[in-house]
Task: structure prediction
Amino acid sequence: MSDGGDRILVWGAGAIGGTVAAYLRRAGLDITAVDASAAHVQAIRTRGLSITGPIETFTQAMPAFMPDELTGTWDTIFLCVKALHTEGAAHQLLPHLTADGVVVSLQNGFNELAIAAVVGRARTMGAFINFGADVLEPGVVHFGGRGAVVLGELDGRTTDRLARVHRALRPFEPNAIASDNIWGYLWGKMGYGALLFASALTEASIVDVLASREARPVLTELAREVMRVAAAEGVQPMGFNGYDPAAFGPAGTPEGVEASFDAMVAFNRRSAKTHSGVWRDIAVHHRKTECDAQFAPILALATQHGLAIPRVERLVSLMRDVETGRRPQALENLVLLAA
Result:
């Protein structure tokens, strides 16, 4: 049997999981994919998983299963489902995780908390991702742009399994890093993520919203609120791909904020992924977004620390209206967000 670093179960073979699985399988790792979509699983079985986009195009064969078809156990499981499905998926994968195995959260949000509640903190590893990908149709994933990939143990330790999983991910992202501050990256992503959720309230692209001089003041307030909660938690948020958490912190300057926005715009202009996955959930898939699942922990922590974060609260409220169709995606929603 291969070691836990190159025998990997990818649970959720959509945009994130599918891209990673195809690259690692092509590199010779022993990858098995699981997905809840019968059409997606059948397409992978019959044609392989196709990666398209500006980076490269290829089709990779791999074993694929529905959750109720799977048998066997794995030392390493990459969990790649949407945040709102984390708890359910963690319970489903639990019988397939070895006693000393690890679940790695290749997701957005603080899903490590939900995973640890099911499989145990000792069997949970954190990860931060910022590459762009979308499922175009069953068996086809568009890989639109590279971005930061970071791994870390929840307690900041440097371990053999961290080195092993880091090594396993390098065929996908050569610049992936292992960090002793994974929570700093996760909080940084939530600050940036708040901006992406705000952009999804509109029909505009990520670049158009981040570049808008009219939108930047309310976007700034959103990021500042998230960074205030991080500071109250004693976390040092980490920057990436143009997002500078210090610019949105208590010592941030207007010049620093503008520089960070300009850097984020420059980064996103290089990606063929024009709109966020949140936007696609609403405009393309017509389904509930990850908004509640991602921001619930932040809202709870803000309450514990006695912090007011009214822009984040308004963002969640507006997103519920938009994702249920009570309000259209429109730039006017940013005006309401600022009100």
